[in-house]
Amino acid sequence: MTYLIASIKFPQLFSLESQQQVIGYLRTENAVLKEKLGKKRILLTDDQRRRLAVKGKILSRKQLEQFGTLFTPDTIRRWHRQLVANKWDYSDHKEKTHGWPRVREVVVDLTVKLATDNPTWGYD
Q1: Could you give the C-alpha distances from 65 to 43, 70, 77, 83, in angstroms and in order?
Q2: Hey, is 70 helix, strand or coil?
Q3: Residues 52, 22: one domain?
Q4: Same domain, yes or no, for 35 and 46?
Protein backbone atom coordinates (compact mmCIF):
# COMPACT_ATOMS: atom_id res chain seq x y z
CA MET A 1 0.00 0.00 0.00
CA THR A 2 2.80 2.42 0.87
CA TYR A 3 4.56 1.63 -2.40
CA LEU A 4 1.38 2.32 -4.33
CA ILE A 5 0.85 5.66 -2.63
CA ALA A 6 4.49 6.62 -3.13
CA SER A 7 4.39 5.64 -6.80
CA ILE A 8 1.31 7.78 -7.32
CA LYS A 9 2.96 10.81 -5.72
CA PHE A 10 6.45 10.29 -7.16
CA PRO A 11 6.23 8.06 -10.24
CA GLN A 12 9.45 9.47 -11.76
CA LEU A 13 11.58 8.31 -8.80
CA PHE A 14 11.04 4.62 -9.42
CA SER A 15 12.58 4.32 -12.88
CA LEU A 16 16.25 3.37 -13.13
CA GLU A 17 17.01 6.21 -15.52
CA SER A 18 15.59 8.86 -13.18
CA GLN A 19 17.48 7.35 -10.25
CA GLN A 20 20.72 7.64 -12.22
CA GLN A 21 19.89 11.27 -13.01
CA VAL A 22 19.28 12.02 -9.33
CA ILE A 23 22.58 10.35 -8.38
CA GLY A 24 24.38 12.35 -11.08
CA TYR A 25 22.88 15.57 -9.80
CA LEU A 26 23.83 14.77 -6.18
CA ARG A 27 27.41 13.95 -7.22
CA THR A 28 27.68 17.26 -9.04
CA GLU A 29 26.18 19.10 -6.07
CA ASN A 30 28.72 17.45 -3.74
CA ALA A 31 31.57 18.43 -6.05
CA VAL A 32 30.39 22.06 -6.11
CA LEU A 33 30.09 22.14 -2.31
CA LYS A 34 33.55 20.61 -1.98
CA GLU A 35 35.03 23.27 -4.26
CA LYS A 36 33.24 26.03 -2.36
CA LEU A 37 34.46 24.80 1.04
CA GLY A 38 38.03 24.17 0.01
CA LYS A 39 40.15 23.17 3.00
CA LYS A 40 37.75 24.57 5.61
CA ARG A 41 36.73 22.19 8.36
CA ILE A 42 33.05 21.29 8.51
CA LEU A 43 31.60 21.20 12.01
CA LEU A 44 28.69 18.81 12.43
CA THR A 45 26.31 18.13 15.27
CA ASP A 46 26.14 14.68 16.85
CA ASP A 47 22.85 14.03 15.08
CA GLN A 48 24.33 14.91 11.69
CA ARG A 49 27.32 12.63 12.32
CA ARG A 50 24.99 9.83 13.40
CA ARG A 51 22.88 10.12 10.22
CA LEU A 52 25.96 10.09 7.98
CA ALA A 53 27.52 7.18 9.88
CA VAL A 54 24.39 5.04 9.56
CA LYS A 55 24.05 5.71 5.83
CA GLY A 56 27.80 5.44 5.20
CA LYS A 57 28.09 2.06 6.95
CA ILE A 58 25.83 0.53 4.32
CA LEU A 59 28.27 1.50 1.56
CA SER A 60 31.70 -0.04 1.11
CA ARG A 61 34.90 1.96 1.49
CA LYS A 62 35.40 1.83 -2.29
CA GLN A 63 31.92 3.24 -2.94
CA LEU A 64 32.51 6.05 -0.45
CA GLU A 65 35.78 6.94 -2.18
CA GLN A 66 34.09 6.83 -5.59
CA PHE A 67 31.42 9.33 -4.58
CA GLY A 68 34.01 11.86 -3.54
CA THR A 69 32.22 12.55 -0.29
CA LEU A 70 32.93 15.57 1.90
CA PHE A 71 34.36 13.28 4.57
CA THR A 72 36.88 10.48 4.16
CA PRO A 73 35.65 6.89 4.41
CA ASP A 74 37.84 6.46 7.50
CA THR A 75 36.08 9.35 9.21
CA ILE A 76 32.62 7.97 8.42
CA ARG A 77 33.61 4.51 9.65
CA ARG A 78 35.09 5.99 12.84
CA TRP A 79 31.82 7.80 13.50
CA HIS A 80 29.98 4.50 13.11
CA ARG A 81 32.36 2.71 15.49
CA GLN A 82 31.85 5.46 18.08
CA LEU A 83 28.09 5.25 17.58
CA VAL A 84 28.11 1.51 18.26
CA ALA A 85 30.51 1.90 21.20
CA ASN A 86 28.29 4.57 22.78
CA LYS A 87 25.25 2.37 22.35
CA TRP A 88 26.86 -0.52 24.22
CA ASP A 89 28.65 1.34 27.02
CA TYR A 90 25.81 0.49 29.46
CA SER A 91 25.69 4.06 30.75
CA ASP A 92 21.95 3.76 31.22
CA HIS A 93 22.51 0.90 33.70
CA LYS A 94 25.08 2.68 35.81
CA GLU A 95 24.07 4.24 39.09
CA LYS A 96 23.84 8.00 39.03
CA THR A 97 25.32 8.48 42.51
CA HIS A 98 28.57 7.36 44.04
CA GLY A 99 29.22 6.34 47.64
CA TRP A 100 26.71 6.20 50.44
CA PRO A 101 23.22 7.58 49.93
CA ARG A 102 22.67 11.05 51.39
CA VAL A 103 21.21 11.33 54.88
CA ARG A 104 17.89 13.14 54.95
CA GLU A 105 17.96 16.67 56.33
CA VAL A 106 15.33 15.79 58.95
CA VAL A 107 17.59 13.09 60.39
CA VAL A 108 20.56 15.47 60.48
CA ASP A 109 18.51 18.18 62.24
CA LEU A 110 17.17 15.69 64.80
CA THR A 111 20.66 14.34 65.53
CA VAL A 112 22.07 17.84 66.08
CA LYS A 113 19.09 18.79 68.28
CA LEU A 114 19.50 15.68 70.44
CA ALA A 115 23.23 16.30 70.75
CA THR A 116 22.84 19.95 71.75
CA ASP A 117 19.98 19.20 74.19
CA ASN A 118 22.02 16.50 75.96
CA PRO A 119 25.56 17.78 76.54
CA THR A 120 26.42 14.80 78.78
CA TRP A 121 26.24 12.46 75.79
CA GLY A 122 29.65 13.61 74.53
CA TYR A 123 28.76 16.26 71.96
CA ASP A 124 30.56 19.59 72.42
Answers
A1: 21, 10, 12, 21
A2: coil
A3: no
A4: no
